[in-house]
Design the sequence.
């Protein structure tokens, strides 16, 4: 056999270097897909660094003559209100989702009581409820049934002050919380099913109440999953557009979230300002990237389990 | 410290395929400070029984009481018991100290200093005081096991409940821990219920053994009572290693007739049989005698099948003459210094004072061995000669 292979190399192969062509093929495919996936980011980045008239050759980097950081500055100015609004809405709703989702999952996975299954199914059903189906009743609810823009005062304690901007954001926050709980519940539930039942039993025999078992045993053990859910849920809520559009309506509104402002950024009657739009898009994506970096360790651990 | 009573306790699990009776009408009275071992094959209901005492399962019927006070309907949190799990169930995110003080923080009103002292004391007693700041995953199996014990000890509970605590240790460590656990229990003098499937643990550690099978209590008694005076064939077969030999026989004209032998019975022994004829003859391996040639009426010709040398003793499997060697029925243990060749023709003796006779249908014990030949001037504790 080895004889045959050497003699084959006597032909054309002899003048080619001795290397694995299969490996070259693999490298080529990898390189192609890397370029394919990076191209939109690359294009966006170089475009955002050019002055508005020069954005005609999307793939080429800016030349010294048309390089500018002005777009980033302008985009930041225009988005700053959106940043504040989005943070004000996304941070509390993410935290509430994580907390409520894990509590619900604990109660329905590690605590024993009869007829749990219908409740679990209700949660699962919540995941498959399409956004579009509830838009009309949703806006109707926040306008007529519980208008938080008029403020929310319970027993003399001001929960939400009467304000168009913060009231609307509070409505949006609660909507996201409600819509996020089912998926958070499911993620935590699958994780809690892997927690040894004996740990919970040991805590019971040790005298810990249901609440204490949650706060002292289950919650500390949920760290990896909390990382996963935080990243996932924050990204979802930060990038969400449909609820913002329904409840807030216009990018000029005081309560406009970042996605809402971004949709109108750099577009007017004179045409589309691509460099400005690109700079805005990058700015808007930064917080989600930041969250990934912040919880990367928990995320990796949570993925592995 | 307290005595624990199980009164007609029954547990029925329900699932799609119907009802499963896990524990069936069990009555056990555990005395204050006693070390009781619940032993039986897997699925016999011993763990379920223990979990009911802990409050992790609710009995379907019956009552469990501590010092005469019923705790049947109390939650685990309201019972002053401590449990050691087979998996140890240490809280992985807490240090050893955290694990040991958790129960005290949750179940008692003790001040921080008192908790600290108790944890330190228990850790010193178990020799894990240098590990207090480590996490469970930095400990070896034996150390984790000690922490689990320590977590139970600091509570100073009414009763310790141990669910196969030594099952995950290697053989050498297991026998060490067995002795240590016994010492510990003697020192603390706390009522202990210990679940195991290992009859050696049951025999060596317990004050009394409760043998369970199919959810039913077969016998409760001292280790030697269970060994020498078994209530039935199940207990006789379960306690003792290697197990007792069982030979199915019928009573014909005062003789036990087996497939390959006929065994004459004395008048006294026959009187115990209550006229039943379908019987099982039982004899412990160490009571079977091996000789060169059979001579007496209780000695039979046989062929050696396999010899398993253990060092201190040899386990010999013997087939009766006329029996295929592969079907060898009889196991005998003889001194390790005695040499028996495989396939050798020998004689086996079954002395009448050492035989047990069981009812062939119910397994009920009709005749147990004579203890008149016990060495020394004191009869065996708990197994007095009948």
Sequence:
């Amino acid at each position: 056999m080895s004889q045959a292979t050497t003699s084959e190399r006597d032909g054309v192969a002899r003048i080619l270097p001795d290397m694995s062509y299969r490996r070259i093929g693999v490298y080529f495919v990898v390189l192609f897909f890397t370029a394919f996936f990076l191209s939109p980011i690359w294009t966006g980045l170089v475009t955002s660094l050019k002055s508005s008239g020069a954005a005609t050759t999307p793939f080429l980097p800016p030349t010294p003559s048309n390089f500018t950081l002005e777009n980033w500055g302008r985009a930041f100015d225009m988005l700053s209100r959106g940043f504040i609004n989005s943070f004000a809405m996304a941070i509390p709703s993410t935290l509430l989702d994580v907390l409520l989702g894990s509590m619900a999952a604990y109660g329905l996975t590690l605590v024993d009581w009869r007829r749990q299954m219908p409740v679990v199914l209700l949660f699962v059903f919540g995941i498959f409820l399409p956004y579009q189906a509830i838009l009309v009743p949703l806006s109707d609810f926040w306008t007529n049934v519980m208008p938080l823009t008029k403020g929310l005062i319970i027993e003399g304690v001001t929960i939400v002050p009467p304000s168009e901007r913060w009231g609307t954001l509070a409505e949006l926050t609660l909507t996201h919380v409600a819509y996020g709980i089912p998926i958070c519940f499911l993620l935590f539930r699958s994780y809690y099913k892997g927690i040894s039942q004996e740990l919970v039993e040991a805590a019971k025999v040790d005298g810990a109440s249901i609440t204490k078992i949650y706060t002292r045993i289950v919650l500390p053990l949920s760290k990896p999953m909390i990382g996963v859910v935080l990243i996932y849920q924050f990204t979802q809520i930060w990038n969400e557009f449909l609820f913002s559009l329904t409840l807030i309506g216009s990018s000029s509104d005081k309560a406009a979230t970042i996605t809402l402002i971004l949709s109108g950024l750099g577009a007017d009657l004179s045409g589309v300002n691509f460099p400005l739009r690109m700079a805005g898009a990058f700015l808007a994506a930064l917080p989600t990237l930041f969250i990934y970096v912040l919880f990367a360790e928990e995320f990796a651990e949570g993925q592995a389990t | 410290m307290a005595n624990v009573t199980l009164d007609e306790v029954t547990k029925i699990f329900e699932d799609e395929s119907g009802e499963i009776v896990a524990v069936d009408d069990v009555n056990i009275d555990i005395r204050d400070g006693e070390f009781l071992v619940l032993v039986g094959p897997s699925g016999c209901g011993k763990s379920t029984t223990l979990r009911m005492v802990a409050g992790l399962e609710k009995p379907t019927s019956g009552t469990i009481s501590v010092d005469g006070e019923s705790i049947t309907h109390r939650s685990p949190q309201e019972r002053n018991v401590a449990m050691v799990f087979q998996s140890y169930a240490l809280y992985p995110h807490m240090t050893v100290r955290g694990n040991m003080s958790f129960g005290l923080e949750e179940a008692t009103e003790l001040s921080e200093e008192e908790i600290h002292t108790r944890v330190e004391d228990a850790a010193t007693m178990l020799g894990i005081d240098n590990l207090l700041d480590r996490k469970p995953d930095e400990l070896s199996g034996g150390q984790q096991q000690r922490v689990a014990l320590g977590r139970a000890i600091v509570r100073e509970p009414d009763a310790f409940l141990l669910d196969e605590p030594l099952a995950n240790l290697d053989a050498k460590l297991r026998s060490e821990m067995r002795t240590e656990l016994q010492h510990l229990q003697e020192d603390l003098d706390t009522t202990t219920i210990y679940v195991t499937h290992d009859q050696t643990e049951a025999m060596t550690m317990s004050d009394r053994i409760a043998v369970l099978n199919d959810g039913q209590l077969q016998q409760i008694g001292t280790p030697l009572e269970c060994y020498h005076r078994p209530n039935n064939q199940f207990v006789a077969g379960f306690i003792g290693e290697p197990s007792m030999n069982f030979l199915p026989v019928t009573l014909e004209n005062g003789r036990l007739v087996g497939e390959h032998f006929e065994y004459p019975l004395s008048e006294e022994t026959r009187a115990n049989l209550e006229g039943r004829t379908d019987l099982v003859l039982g004899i412990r391996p160490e009571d079977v005698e091996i000789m060169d040639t059979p001579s007496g009426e209780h000695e039979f010709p046989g062929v050696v099948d396999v010899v398993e040398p253990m060092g201190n003793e040899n386990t010999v499997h013997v087939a009766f003459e006329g029996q295929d060697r592969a079907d060898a029925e009889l196991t005998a243990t003889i001194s390790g210094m005695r040499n028996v060749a495989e396939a050798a023709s020998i004689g086996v003796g079954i002395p009448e004072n050492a035989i047990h006779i069981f009812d062939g249908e119910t397994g009920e014990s009709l005749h147990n061995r004579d203890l008149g030949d016990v060495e020394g001037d004191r009869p065996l504790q708990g197994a007095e000669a009948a």
